[in-house]
Amino acid sequence: MFVTHLESALDGTRFEAGQVHTIHQGRPLWVRYDLPAIRAVVQPGDFAQRPPSLWRYRELLPLAGNAEPVTLGEGMTPLLPCPRLGRELGLTNLFIKDESQLPTGSFKSRGMTMAVSLAKQLGLKRLAIPTAGNAGGALAAYGARAGMEVFIFMPEDTPVINQMEAYLAGAKVFLVNGLIHDCGRLVRENAERYGWFDMSTLKEPYRLEGKKTMGLELAEQFDWQLPDVILYPTGGGTGLIGMWKAFQELNELGWLKFSREPKASARFPRLISCQSDGCAPIVRAFAKGERFAELFPNAHTIASGLRVPAAVGDFMMLDAIRQSGGCAIAGTESKIRPWMERVFRTEGIGICPETAVCFACLEQLLADGRIKPEESVVVFNTGAVQKYPEAVPLNLPHIDKNQPLDLSI
User: Closest Cα to residue 379, out of 247, 262, 273?
Assistant: First the structure.
């Protein structure tokens, strides 16, 4: 393990590695590594010789070298070219990075395999989390794999499949008459009473390191270059923050092709934070030029993973967006279902409502010229479409088996 210390993202205060840590002054911690030591023992070409798993990047991850990860077989997710949809939109190089193929059907597998592995290494036994959907199911699954006790607090209108998977995995699941920040308050205020560790987004430092592997994979899949633009659906924001951290570490290691050229200027992707217009605290803060986001009132969206009216990592998201030259933009709620249908019908890739928001945003950015036709664009599909039946209510025709078939086509 090459971790040197942990560090406050807010003021740089250092903390010793190998101990249980949570937030500092209400804000998250970074995990820091001895990058020169990593560079001395591994090179980019070495990863291709290892199994296609997020754990292939072990030197850049916080789990001790002699510790077995708590894993469900997290493979590298495919980077899928989308030529037909790209032509319709006027894009030459459009890709979808399909996180739906991870073990629990969403990118949350990345964070939870890492967080639960570290929780086990550090001797924790009881975990709790507030969730709007997929994070709860993922924690329940990895907690079951590790033999840990898991408590999950969900808004009462959380998609039923997320409720079911958490329950089936043996977690103690509670429905709350509020939003995710209300669930978070219950977890936080009762941690001492019930003796659980708070696994909320960015309130432990290791989920971020799991999400970081999206950026590591993307760089490897692009042959250690990076795309021009990344559109990412942001609720709590760990995926966006984690990828930006990965790109900075890869650049310091000298593994990105532009960073090997002495006179080359860094060319990182522009990060586009995509939110629904029904819950867009990061978009509002970005537009106002602020570093911290205010609580978004009356948050509502069928993209349950984006219904996060306040995020503890707001400033980390906004810093990354601005440093990358990107932006935060809100997609129209009414366009979610049409985009779910369009992408699936055009490319055969089922996307979640959160990713449909990204395509609504992409349409806007192309229309106003902020994304150019020749640029390489990656949209992250963060969850499996099958997990969101409530997002697409159906009224399919019925056929009488005893009558002649007349489809009137």
Answer: 273
Q: Where are the beta strands (DSSP E) in 309-406?
A: 327-331, 376-381
Dist CA 4 CA 335 (whole Å): 46
pTM of the model: 0.94
CA 114, distance to chain mean position in Å, is 13
Domain contains 9: no
- From its phi and psi, is residue 238 left (phi > 0), alpha (psi between -120 and 50) or beta? alpha
Query: What's the per-residue H, E or C state across 169-230?
Result: CCCEEEEECCCHHHHHHHHHHCHHHHCCEECCCCCCCCHHHHHHHHHHHHHHHCCCCCCCEE
Q: Is 31 helix (H, G, I), strand (E, B) or coil?
A: strand
What torsion, rounded to 10 degrees, do the Cα atoms 220, 365, 360, 110 define?
A: 20
**Long-range Cβ contacts of 81-88 (<8 Å, 24+ apart):** 82/343, 82/346, 82/347, 82/349, 84/346, 84/347, 85/342, 85/343, 85/346, 85/347, 88/346
- Joined tokens for residue 334: 């009414």
- Is 67 within the bounds of a domain? no
For 226-272, the pLDDT digits (tens) are 999 999 999 999 999 999 999 999 999 999 988 666 555 558 999 99
Structural domains counted in the chain = 1
Q: Estimate to the nearest angstrom the gap between the alpha carbon of 124 and the chain centroid.
A: 24
DSSP 3-state of 33: strand
Please name which of 243, 237, 191, 245 lies closest in space to residue 217, comparing C-alpha atoms: 243
Give 235: exposed, middle or buried? Use CB within 10 Å, 0-12, 13-18, 19+. Answer: buried
pLDDT, tens digit (0-9, with 9 covering 90-100), for 73-107:
999 999 999 999 999 999 999 999 999 999 999 99
Q: What's residue 119's pLDDT? A: 97
Closest by Cα among 137, 149, 174, 65 to 304? 137
Cα angle 95-257-40, degrees, rounded to a multiple of 5: 120
- As a whole-number percent, the residues of the chain with pLDDT over 90 amount to 92
Report the distance separating Cα 143 and Cα 150, nearest Å. 6
What is the span of the domain harbouring residue 243?
79-105+206-388
Strands (E) across 199-316 are located at 229-233, 270-276
Mean pLDDT along residues 159-170: 95
| Residue 353, in any domain of the structure | yes
Can you give the CATH number for the domain in which 302 is found? Answer: 3.40.50.1100
Residue 87 inside a domain? The answer is yes
Q: Residue for token digits 């059907």?
A: 105
